[in-house]
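Our consortium's second objective concerns turning raw sequence data into structural hypotheses that experimental partners can test. To show how far this objective has progressed, the report includes one record in full. It was chosen at random from the queue rather than selected for favorable results. The single chain below, 271 residues long, was entered without modification.
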Amino acid sequence: MKDSVQQTHASKKKKKGEGLPLTGKRILITRAREQAEEFSSLLETYGAQVIAFPTIAITPPEDWRPMDQAIDQLDSYDWVIFTSVNGVRFFEQRLKEKGVNRAALAGKKICAIGPRTQKELEKMGLTVHFRPSEYRAERVSEGLRAQGIQGKKILLPRAREARRILPESLREAGALVDEVEVYRTVKPAQGKASLEAILKKGIDLVVFTSSSTVRNFIELLSDKTSMNGVKVATIGPVTDETARDYGLEPVISPSEYTIPSLVEAIVEHFK
């Protein structure tokens, strides 16, 4: 199914609105602006009218010193765990800024959460030694336990707002974990008035791709009744759980937690 999404630009040359499964559907996506292009393009290929309303922005940390200290002692780590494409990109950026060759990671065992994260690491010329079958912290911890991480030193560069369960479960398994902030997710400048104006015009589906997008969306939502009749899609169980905690009931969630699979799930739902 995923391949069919990626090939739609070649296979769907129909006029806009002619027999496409998402024709007439207004879909609001909440991803960071720099990550929304591929998602929007795939949805539009199926006829959707996409409204981009980023509820998060990706920024560098306010203080690079903890990350710099970790880079200075890279030789001491047995494993480095990357939980997102953003983590890889900001890590690589900081290596360049410090004049450190990416080869400094070559001797480390690398864990990647998700296929896109793995591809980003492979673009750097790095080998991924472990990728969990399910892209959530609990499965990462279980898989790494099987790899034998007791007494191993692990570097975990990720967002400041990330869940605590991964480093805590790794420490319970006997690993020595240095968790460092490599980027932040913050609320962009768009305000409540902009969101209310969009919702008043009518939205068929709101899509959340992280817990942060859910939390910030709710903070901007003055009147929850404006979501009445609006369907919700999430990219995975963690985001799904966060949405439910805030009173939103997802009706679409793909079995594989990637953007192409999410698009397939949306298309299948509206068919």
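The partners drew two points from this record. The CA atoms of residues 22 and 48 lie 5 Å apart. The two ends are 15 Å apart (CA to CA). Both points have been shared with the crystallography group to help prioritize constructs.
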